[in-house]
Amino acid sequence: MGQHSPTRLGILSDGIGRVAVAVDPGGRMIFRMEGALVPIEFEIPTFLEGKGFRLEPLGPEHNERDHAAWMSSIDHIRSTPGFDAPDSTWPVAMPLGRNLEDLVAHARDFEERTGFTYSILDGDDVIGCVYIYPAPRPGYDAEIRSWVRESRAEMDAVLWETLSAWIRTAWPFSNLHYAPRG
User: In terms of CB atoms within 10 Å, which end of the chain has fewer, N or C?
Assistant: First the structure.
């Protein structure tokens, strides 16, 4: 991960969408749909297999399993780095229908390239989630947060190590924030 951010040159418009144009520190042109987190030419990973887990994009098909995973682990998630801020507003108990609305919104973000949420699976069991979104902190271009259900807490450090390496090597971020694990 480098320390330099791309230099923004301007916006192009074709009447349908707007594209931000920038030059990275190596002199390469970067084209990104306005509001998108990654450049247009970046092929978004849709699968990752790690030790004891696999990732796939989170969607409505995960609703019941996702809801059961985090609802059973609210206190555990709130103590997980990245979710442990005193002003954190998630997770809070919600009905299954409201969770479905959230999953539909995450799937839309993925499609629009504005954020990427993955379900962490072991077989068909949802054991957690990974979020890749624009960083709210100055100096970072992306923030990664992940949680695992309390019954799979031993996976948190394994997941963090695997995801940290994957994001550094497979994603186009120059400076990301992913809260370290103890």
Answer: C
